[in-house]
Amino acid sequence: MPRRHDPGRRGRIIDAAIRIVELKGIPALSHRSVAAEADVPLGSTTYHFAGLDDLLVAALEQVNSEPHSAMRDWGRALDEAVGGTPGEPGGDSGLADALARLLEEYAHGGRGRIRLEYELYLAALRRPPLQPLAAAWLDEMVDVIARHTADLATARVLVALIDGLLLQLLLTDRPFDRAGVRAALARVTGGA
After folding, report:
1. Closest CA relative to residue 61, chosen from 12, 121, 6, 109
2. Is residue 1 assigned to a domain?
């Protein structure tokens, strides 16, 4: 039987891996589970991805490069929402307000997506091939926020705070507290 040409197979395998990680976490990821989810022969997964780290790298690259990735959307939203520059009236409090709104929208958009991004992000702790991608994700977030802070250090503290707030949201399954989040962000930005 001749080999069937299927140019979209690699992409379907990556999409299947993303769905598995989003729904069940990285421990559920295997060549077999991905093949079943993508409805492709098992050999296709190992043909395109020699190991699971290769597949995770491809998944993280795709999540980070999607046209509507969170950071691109956040960059545009912050550029539009922040009515001043740091240290000027409206700048610092505008940043806290805008970030709180963005976090609320992100949380209400589905915790599965947040879980997916953190699963891939935290996998870098044990999987060195993922570390450069996770670092790039952090750097992009710092760069987006730094455009609206007085210095890079403040942007890094805000990113650390946002990470902590999102992880707590996932771990506790509590409703999003916009006022509490905004107050925490305002402590860092200096906004009232």
Report:
1. 121
2. no
